[in-house]
């Protein structure tokens, strides 16, 4: 099969400075070995959108592990080969490279594990998820930088559309339902009309429930890391995917208001306390899952322990704590209620409007109030602790007040 179709949109890219010489080197190595090498997937999409790229996916018409091994040897870096998949990765300077042999995947029946065979570049691109992720760039010296776009990826990138390559895409790989929404949310794209129809159908068919849950939940973890997570959650809502993933989940106005509240709390915290980094994405998940029984999902999600602990605490004590906070009369009472709580719990509480000011007072002021132990000469052990706490309370109550 020829490499370029007659109708592929051809355009030559100027590769970013940080990767150009490495890419040229890969190209000439491939040539010397009698292979062909291309950049593919997300890196091509990101280059076309003028984003910085640090992760390079390279496909090789030929033996990818051998090519990667040669490159690793020249640069004196470690090679991590995966012979059963025909892939290998390595890192040169700060650039991560993943090499794979071009392959075809055929599905004996929908949803089955694919049969993997060696194939042409075109077939390798055809097995991918969306047109914008199915473009390649040649690294060969004769046409270095040439964009290879069989499926209209460049046009869809300009039109801001997520489009699958064939109607069975979501059936073959239901994880793509969530990927479609993640990319749409991240990039501010829409689903093409036909892709939208296919996605809705796939959700209605319950494919998300049937897919391997490990893969589904690692995709959710990826979504939690996205800057535009709130947009992605809106799309999850629009296409009813959470109902399908989490038994008993449903949307209502209150949950939406709380999500909005959480979003502004996170914006606030990011700016006010830049040194207190937190993986904010998990907070959205905790809030979404408060009304279902998610302890089991936390395992699937491989949630960090602060998420599990925070979630378990809130499941059990949220209502009581909200009530107590509302009733508190003095700053020192707020302090006692919130002292020692994990930041995630505090930020989630703060997204509830009725206690927002109180939690904010705690985060901004109360938790920073200090007294000097040297003022309590003669006391030690528990007595000292108690006296200091009392002093702190007095100080707080004289310095600050609660507007009810
Ligand atoms: N891919 C796919 N179907 C999937 C997962 C991945 O077709 N379920 C293909 C896509 O072509 C994708 C490539 O494999 O571009 C690499 O996958 P991944 O690294 O997850 O995607 P990126 O596009 O690189 O995503 P990101 O920008 O989030 O790194």
From TrEMBL:
Signal peptide: none
Family classification: Belongs to the tRNA nucleotidyltransferase/poly(A) polymerase family.
The protein's name: tRNA nucleotidyltransferase (CCA-adding enzyme)
Source species of the chain: Thermocrinis minervae
Included stretch of the parent chain: 415 to 818 of 818
């Amino acid at each position: 099969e020829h490499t370029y179709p007659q109708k592929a949109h051809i355009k030559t890219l100027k590769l970013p400075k940080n990767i150009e010489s490495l890419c040229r080197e890969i190209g000439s190595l491939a040539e010397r070995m009698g292979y062909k090498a291309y950049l593919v997937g997300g890196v091509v999409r990101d280059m076309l959108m003028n984003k910085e790229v640090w992760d390079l996916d390279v496909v090789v018409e030929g033996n990818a592990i051998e090519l990667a091994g040669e490159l690793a040897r020249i640069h004196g870096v470690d090679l991590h080969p995966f012979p059963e998949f025909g892939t290998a990765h390595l890192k040169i300077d700060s650039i991560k490279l993943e090499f794979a042999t071009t392959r075809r995947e055929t599905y004996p029946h929908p949803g089955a594990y694919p049969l993997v065979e060696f194939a042409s570049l075109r077939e390798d691109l055809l097995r991918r998820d969306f047109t914008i992720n199915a473009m390649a760039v040649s690294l060969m010296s004769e046409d270095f930088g040439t964009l290879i776009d069989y499926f209209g990826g460049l046009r869809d990138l300009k039109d801001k559309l997520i489009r699958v390559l064939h109607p069975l895409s979501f059936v073959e790989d239901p994880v793509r339902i969530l990927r479609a929404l993640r990319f749409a949310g991240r990039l501010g794209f829409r689903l093409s009309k036909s892709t939208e129809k296919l996605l809705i159908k796939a959700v209605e068919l319950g494919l998300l429930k049937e897919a391997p849950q490990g893969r589904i939940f690692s995709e959710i973890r990826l979504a939690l890391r996205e800057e535009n997570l709130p947009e992605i959650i809106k799309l999850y809502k629009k296409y009813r995917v959470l109902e399908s993933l989490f038994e008993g989940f449903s949307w209502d106005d209150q949950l939406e208001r709380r999500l909005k509240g959480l979003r502004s709390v996170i914006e606030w915290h990011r700016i006010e306390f830049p040194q207190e980094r937190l993986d904010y994405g998990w907070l959205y998940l905790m809030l979404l899952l408060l009304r279902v029984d998610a302890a089991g999902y936390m395992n699937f999600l491989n949630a960090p322990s602060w998420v599990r602990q925070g979630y378990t605490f809130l499941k059990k004590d949220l209502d009581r704590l909200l009530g107590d906070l509302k009733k508190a009369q003095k700053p020192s009472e707020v302090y006692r209620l919130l002292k020692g709580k994990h930041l995630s719990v505090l930020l989630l509480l703060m997204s509830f409007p009725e206690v927002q000011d109180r939690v904010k007072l705690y985060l901004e002021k109360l938790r920073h109030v200090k007294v000097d132990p040297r003022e309590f000469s003669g006391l030690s052990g528990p007595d000292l602790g108690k006296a200091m706490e009392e002093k702190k309370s007095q100080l707080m109550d004289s310095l600050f007040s609660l507007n009810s």
